[in-house]
Specification:
With about 70 residues, the protein is an alpha+beta fold. The chain has one domain (about 5-65). Helix content is about 25%, strand content about 35%. It has two helices and four strands, in the order E-H-E-E-E-H. It has a two-stranded parallel ribbon. The chain has a two-stranded antiparallel ribbon with strand order 3-4. Strand 1, helix 1 and strand 2 (about 25-30) form a beta-alpha-beta unit.
Length: about 70
């Protein structure tokens, strides 16, 4: 008999309120892709940044609220 473990590697999982049945683990990278104005090229450009400590606390609170 096989044991199936579903894992999601993602970011902003708690903010999106996505519920996927049968998921065993969710690994959040604590990173967010944000858009910033780049003065050098005079254009918007995406930047990968760390999320804030308050966002982490919010995610943890949501996790324990759901489970």
């Amino acid at each position: 008999m096989f044991c199936v473990v579903q894992v999601i590697l993602a970011t902003n999982v708690a903010e999106s309120s996505v519920t996927i049945p049968g998921v065993s683990y969710v690994v959040d990278s604590c990173r967010s892709l944000e858009i910033f104005w780049d003065r050098n090229i005079k254009h918007h450009s995406p930047r990968l940044v760390w999320i804030s400590q308050s966002q982490v606390i919010h995610f943890v609170d949501l996790f324990f609220l759901i489970t």
